[in-house]
């Protein structure tokens, strides 16, 4: 994973976030960090098994978001 671009997806266990994580995992250019409030959920475990790094963070907890985003690339539309 060292040559891969680190990218973070917030809301990774939701419908849109999960689809985004799965699409990025198919692209070998990215190391995918999947952010969820509950890394022990079935959806989070499935993402981990698929190859994502699952991390816990909450949008109401700034420190957890800063840690989850550390080192990730910025993608702008």
Outline:
The protein has 77 residues and is an alpha/beta fold.
Question: Structural class, from helix and strand content?
Answer: alpha/beta
CATH fold topology: Rossmann fold
**Would you state the CATH class?**
Alpha Beta
How many discrete domains? 1
Rg result: 11 Å
- Which superfamily, in CATH terms, is the homologous superfamily? NAD(P)-binding Rossmann-like Domain
Strand portion: 15-25%
Poorly predicted spans = none
The largest pleated sheet is described as: 3 strands, parallel
* Average of the residue pLDDT scores: 92
Strand order within the widest beta sheet: 1-2-3
SSE pattern, N- to C-terminal: EHEHEH
Roughly how much helix do the residues carry, as a percent range?
A: 25-40%
What is the CATH-assigned architecture?
3-Layer(aba) Sandwich
Number of strands: 3
What does this structure look like?
The protein has one domain (5-69): NAD(P)-binding Rossmann-like Domain (Rossmann fold, 3-Layer(aba) Sandwich). The chain has a three-stranded parallel β-sheet with strand order 1-2-3, with helices on both faces. It is an alpha/beta fold and 77 residues long. The protein is globular, with a radius of gyration of 11 Å. The protein contains three helices and three strands, in the order βαβαβα.
């Amino acid at each position: 994973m060292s040559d891969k671009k680190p990218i973070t997806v917030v809301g990774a266990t939701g419908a849109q976030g999960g689809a985004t994580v799965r699409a990025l995992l198919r692209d070998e250019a990215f190391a995918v960090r999947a952010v969820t409030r509950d890394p022990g959920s079935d959806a989070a475990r499935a993402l981990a098994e698929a190859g994502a790094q699952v991390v816990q963070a909450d949008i109401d907890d700034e420190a957890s978001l800063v840690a989850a985003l550390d080192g990730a690339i910025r993608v702008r539309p």
